[in-house]
Amino acid sequence: MARQLNKLSANEVKNAKGSGKIRKLADGGGLTLVIKGESKYWWLRYRFAGNEKTLSLGSYPQVSLADARKARDEAKGLLKQNIDPSAHRQQESTQRASDGENTFRALCEDWYQQKHSAEVTESHAVRNWRRLEIYTFPQLARRPIRSIQPADILHVLDKIVKKGNVETAHRVKTLISLVFRYGVATSRADSDVTRDLTGYLPKTQVKHQHALYKPDEVSRLLKDIQAYQGHFATSAALRISPLVFTRPGDTRQMLWEQINFDKAQWELPSTKNGAPLIVPLSHQAVAILKEIEPVTKHRSLYVFPESVSSTG
């Protein structure tokens, strides 16, 4: 015959009084109300792997009779799956503590320091960190990573789009994706929560700059560069640009330590996309660098220091 369950009533539990000794009222299925003096608390006795164990389910009245029975039934369900309820509770407690430390900001900081800042230029990394600070941290910084859902990301992106910054929304979505993918790789996130948001954001309006493709237009530009009478460093930067064909940002941030005169090349450890780059220097490019070297090298790490201040 199966043992009787749910022997106690709510009134019995409420009115039960203690005595000089510990008093125990069984509800069935291993659930027991233990009364010691003025205190009442729930125990669950069970057997696992041949051993008898006790699991505390909390104090009464904070944990009601109904709550205690629910906890008992959940523990029984774990036992059917050959899971020790005590070990399961400890694992959940450890996971909660881990999640409390594993916030979105903490993961962003780790991703930035360990990966992003080492793969892209400093200025590009700093701009991306500012985007995270401005657009994501107000809502997500303290959230445990595993608690963040696609709807939370949508809320962040919608606020950006409503201000008319569609392109920024796309960039922020990409950054969030990179952070979560890093979290997956380091076992701190279960998945990239942005993967189901593909196609959600409105498309950006691409504005193409006018391209010079006619010989007379290119000729006129080169003549204008040669005729420029502005700051010496700016003039040198303009004159060297058509000779190296790099991004304007890379040219503006050219460092003297990157110039190898012996090999006639400009050695960039990383570019905007994170890859290193070696740019061969023509005789004309070397001549321009030799011309500006006595002017800027002794007072700046940058080849074109005045032009660096305009970097966006």
Automatic annotation (TrEMBL):
Residues of the Phage integrase central domain: 104-199
Domain annotation Tyr recombinase: ranges: 215-306
Signal peptide: none
Domain Integrase DNA-binding residue range list: 8-92
Transmembrane recorded as keyword: no
Region (Disordered), start-end ranges: 79-99
Transmembrane segments: none
Pfam family, one: Arm-DNA-bind_3
Record keywords: DNA integration, DNA recombination, DNA-binding
Similarity-based family: Belongs to the 'phage' integrase family.
PANTHER family according to UniProt: PROPHAGE INTEGRASE (PTHR30629), PROPHAGE INTEGRASE INTS-RELATED (PTHR30629:SF2)
Protein name: Tyrosine-type recombinase/integrase
Source organism: Marinobacter shengliensis
